[in-house]
Amino acid sequence: MAEKILVTGGAGYIGSHCVLELAEAGYVPVVIDNFHNAIRGADALPESLRRVQQIVHQPILFQELDITNEVALQELFSKHRFSAVMHFAGLKAVGESVQKPLEYYRVNLTGTIRLLETMKAHGVRNIVFSSSATVYGDPKYLPLDENHPVGGCTNPYGKSKYFIEEMIRDLCKAERDWNAVLLRYFNPIGAHESGMIGEDPQGIPNNLMPYVAQVAVGRREFLSVFGNDYKTNDGTGVRDYIHVVDLAKGHIAALKKLKENCGCKIYNLGTGTGYSVLQMVQAMEKASGREEPSDPTVLLSLQIKYKITGRREGDVASCYANPALAERELGWKAAFGLDKMCEDLWRWQLQNPTGFSKN
Q1: Which residues are the active-site residues?
Q2: Of 292 and 48, which is predicted with more confidence?
């Protein structure tokens, strides 16, 4: 019988791609989401999961549920027998976390504590946690490996990820029957190659590439580049970008690792290659120049306009991964390069110029 995997926050960008990979790998994903960062579609489903159903040709089990609701969590676990949990649910905007730290700690920390307590009560002791490279803070050396010091986070979002990691590590030390894989993401971009699901930020995008794509499709006038005086090749910030499908496949590998009674393991999910902001803009120009829009009303800007502005507080010059441990222990390696990331992002943006909401 196929294993049921609970996916918290599974209607979001990364969650929905992982749900798709779970279904294709023969698991039965059960998704909960509170629609904080998802668009409602038909049949009470998030639009992202409605489209996942179309891609995988099977129904996706979904329940609208807030992870801080302990009673609802208990009822959910009473209905299903889960073999593991993939935990994505949480608030995730760095800038907003600085403005609303208590809200970030309440949702991210309290929600996780309630989830772990419910798992424990129902005998579910396997978890894959969606963490972040933000736990490393300002890099002391590059590339970043899993032994790099953590905790020097520059914002409440990063601190919440760090605190959750520490909670899970302590739990695994105290109770030896728990198994956890903590996945530290670098910068997920791209979309499923069908163009049917992708990143649909609500409001002004917080991340570089969704903003660049919206400029390319004519939805925004220009990109603000925060600083061009860093000690990098062209003066702009350098980051490690990873295709979201590669990231999702890393979660499938993590599930298999849990089967080894692995205790608590931590892995970087990145490519190991850093690209500057201007290199990313050029790559997107290349990708967006390859297709004509099917909708003649879509305004294309093959030359992506940008303006240099001052540095943004909390940003570092360079940040990229050493993913060797994940390759060695998970048997996982990023397969897609920058061209593929940008081509798939552009296909998603072109087919969905206003995201999930008005198609």
Answers
A1: 157
A2: 48
